[in-house]
């Protein structure tokens, strides 16, 4: 199957190395990829893609048996020499991370999650019930990362690193700067949702003047002992009563 010239730059961005692009395309073909799909809000050359970061390009594709999948392609100017470490972290994080199908130094082929970024879901919240349900769901996902010692490192601003699928499940993406070590992903996301976005006081009409102090203390307690996670959840649930 011939590679359309429009994708040469994408597969070897920003250098546009034809040899590298064809090598990557041949590897994708051998795995079962049959089409790169012009779709997304980011423009690269003559095609649209799902995303473009400092180290990679993300595109939608079609696999011969899996259907729609997402392909992450390492940029030629990336400071990261391989995507295999990110691939390993995502496998350890499954099912919170999308399922991995294929990995190499230059590409990751993963499950396509049809959903919305966390920031978009947060912006549509209209009630205390919705706020509490979202916070509990997202903290549950980040707790899974903490239990597996996966330090995502980018969740202090999780708005574009967490997807909420149409079925309501939480999927965490973009592990490229992550490490395998003890972490407090829960602390980062909870701080963003509860303190920076102030969702509980905004929608649940919390009257406790020391609310933020209590929340910060619970997060500190959790950081030093993961068994305190239940206390944090109970604190959040009480806000909806």
Task: Please tell me about this protein's structure.
The chain has 241 residues and is of the alpha+beta class. It is built from nine helices and 13 strands. Strands 1, 4, 5, 6, 7 and 8 form a six-stranded antiparallel beta sheet that branches. α8 (211-224) packs antiparallel against α9 (229-238). The longest helix is centred in the middle third of the chain and has 20 residues, at 128-147. The termini are far apart. The relative contact order is 0.10. The mean pLDDT is 95.
Sum up the structure in keywords.
alpha+beta, three-stranded antiparallel β-sheet, 241 residues, six-stranded antiparallel β-sheet
User: What proportion strand?
Assistant: 15-25%
Sheet with the most strands? 6 strands, antiparallel
The secondary-structure element order is HHEEEEEEHEEEHHEEEEHHHH
Question: Mean of residue pLDDT?
Answer: 95
**Spatial shape:** elongated
Number of strands: 13
């Amino acid at each position: 199957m011939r590679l359309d010239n429009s994708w040469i730059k994408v597969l070897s961005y920003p250098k546009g190395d034809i040899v590298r692009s064809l090598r990557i395309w041949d590897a994708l073909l051998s795995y079962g990829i049959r089409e790169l799909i012009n779709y997304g809000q980011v423009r690269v050359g003559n095609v649209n893609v799902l995303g473009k970061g400092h180290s990679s390009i993300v595109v939608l594709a079609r696999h011969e048996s899996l259907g729609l999948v997402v392909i992450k392609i390492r940029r030629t100017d990336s400071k990261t020499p391989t995507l295999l470490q990110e691939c390993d972290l995502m496998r350890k994080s499954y099912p919170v991370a999308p399922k991995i199908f294929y990995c190499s130094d230059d590409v990751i082929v993963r499950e396509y999650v049809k959903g919305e970024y966390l920031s978009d879901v947060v912006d549509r919240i209209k009630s205390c019930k919705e706020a509490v349900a979202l916070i509990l769901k997202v903290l549950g996902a980040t707790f899974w990362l903490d239990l597996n010692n996966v330090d995502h490192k980018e969740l202090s601003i999780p708005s574009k690193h967490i997807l909420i699928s149409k079925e309501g499940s939480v999927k965490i993406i973009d592990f490229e700067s992550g490490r395998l070590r003890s972490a407090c992903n829960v602390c980062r996301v909870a701080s963003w949702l509860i303190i920076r976005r102030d969702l509980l006081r905004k929608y649940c009409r919390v009257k406790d003047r020391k609310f933020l102090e209590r929340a910060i203390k619970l997060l500190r307690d959790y950081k030093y002992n993961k068994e305190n996670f239940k206390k944090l959840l109970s604190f959040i649930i009480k806000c909806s009563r």
